[in-house]
Design brief:
The protein is an alpha+beta fold. 39% of the residues lie in helices and 20% in strands. The chain has helices at residues 10-18, 42-45, 59-64, 74-91, 116-131, 143-155, 168-177, 188-196, 202-206, 210-216, 219-228, 236-240, 258-278, 317-331, 364-381, and strands at 2-7, 27-30, 37-40, 68-71, 95-99, 102-106, 135-140, 162-164, 245-255, 281-292, 303-314, 338-346, 349-350. α4 packs antiparallel against α5. The longest helix is centred in the middle third of the chain and has 21 residues, at 258-278. It is globular, with a radius of gyration of 24 Å. The two termini are 47 Å apart.
Length: 421
């Protein structure tokens, strides 16, 4: 059996931990540039707000109903996530982190010594007691069914935080009630294809014969079908290895000089390369795009994008940054007010890398070790503590707005929570 432990409205829940008195009140968390809503509480949803809403369009609702607004603070959320996951790992021997607010736990053999439903309910209570973060738990023979169970547990209080799908009757009932496009592993294209084939519910998909599924879908679709039928086959680490890695931001202020553009692109390259090394992969290509503010019709409009393929797939920040800077030189146009830039690492490979006889770099391993050393320093002393000079300083105009960001209560000694008695 697998369990998935999913924190409820995680970003909002963390903010509520450090801001007492927000229980039962509407709370929203904005994107890193205070642009759109990325997380919200049920009380905020009841006011007509939704994830993805631009905050400026709903300013009147926010002000009229005294909605509590926060900027995203990933450092704080990651620190709290580590605490929650440590509690889970002390309760279950084998766990797989899936995201900042989700973790899979292997419950194989637990049924011999425990009532699994009561045991996981105890884990949920412990997390709430020790961190004040509410979680929902789904338990099932496969990870896909477990994620469905966690959604039921989150939406229906009667489950008391844990929904267990441990019988054929429960499996079919869950598949009948669940939304097809909300199934883990069914993206937009797969969903549209299923609809075109006359499939409307997860149960209808699960009941299709195997030869029909293999004829119409590739490996991911077949895996989802097997998981819905109770056959575990999804490898979480494999799912987490991305086909591409993207970092892009809208700027706090529009910029125009090539030095500012290069600083933003170099910073995004560093973030992408860090993620690349974190999953043990290398990239065969890098793409960079620039665009103006399309909402400012009074200004010249511009969008451009270009790519570069490396002779040998790499995870070296310096090599990727140099290629990205060359792309900026190619696509930058003077006289444009830029509002956004972005970096995409593609052609990602895992494991062995095809070498090149004419490789211009002869010390790849040493340079990769240098990049890893920078990762360790930034992890220990704080994000962007050590960076390439081209990334600029912390006061750059392109830096995102975060006017409602909470302090880093758990990671910065200068931001330790003060309690007045």
């Amino acid at each position: 059996m697998w369990a998935v432990i999913d924190a409820n409205s995680y970003f909002c829940s963390v903010e509520k931990v450090f801001h007492p008195g927000l229980g039962g009140k509407p709370v929203v968390v904005l994107s890193s540039n205070d642009g759109i809503i990325v997380a919200l509480t049920p009380e905020a949803k009841a006011l007509g707000l939704h994830r993805g809403d631009p905050i400026f369009k709903f300013r009147s609702i926010v002000e009229r109903n005294h909605v509590n607004v926060f900027s995203t603070n990933m450092m704080l959320y990651a620190a709290m996530s580590k605490r929650v996951q440590n509690i889970i790992r002390k309760s279950v021997d084998y766990c797989e982190s899936y995201s900042i607010d989700e973790i899979f736990a292997d419950l194989s053999g637990f049924d011999r010594n425990f009532d699994i439903e009561d045991y996981m309910r105890g884990v949920a209570r412990k997390i709430k007691l020790w961190t004040d973060i509410p979680v929902s738990v789904g338990v099932a023979p496969t990870k896909t069914l477990a994620k469905m169970g966690s959604k039921f547990a989150k939406n229906y209080p009667g489950y008391r935080s844990v929904c267990m799908i441990d019988s054929e009757a429960k499996r079919r009932k869950a598949l009948e009630l669940f939304e097809l496009d909300d199934v883990w592993g069914i993206g937009r294209r797969t969903y549209e294809k299923l609809l075109s084939l006359g499939v409307r519910t997860p149960l209808e998909f699960a009941d299709k014969p195997g030869d029909w599924v293999h004829r119409h879908f590739t490996k991911p679709g077949v895996q989802t079908w097997k998981e819905l039928n109770g056959c575990p086959c999804v490898d979480t680490p494999e799912v987490l290895k991305r086909q591409s890695i993207t970092t892009s931001r809208s700027f706090g202020e529009m910029i125009s000089t090539i030095e500012q553009v290069k600083a933003s692109v170099a910073s995004f390259v560093a973030s992408c390369a860090n993620k690349l090394r974190g999953q043990g992969s290398k990239a065969g290509a890098v793409s960079v795009f620039l665009c103006s503010n399309f909402f400012r019709e009074d200004l010249p409009q511009y969008f451009n994008m270009a790519s570069y393929s490396f002779p040998v797939a790499t995870a070296d920040t310096i090599e990727i940054t140099r290629a990205a800077m060359a792309i900026v030189d190619e696509i930058y146009r003077p006289g444009i007010k830029y509002k956004k830039s972005g970096v995409i690492l593609g052609d990602i490979v895992n494991g062995g890398v095809q070498q090149n006889l004419f490789d211009p770099i002869d010390n790849r391993e040493e340079r990769l070790e240098l990049s890893r050393a920078l990762d360790c320093l930034n992890q220990k002393y704080g994000l962007k503590t050590v960076r390439l000079a081209v990334e600029g300083g912390n006061s750059e105009e392109w830096k995102v707005k975060s006017e409602h960001r909470s302090p880093n209560f758990l990671t910065d000694i200068n931001d330790l929570l003060t309690v007045r008695i």
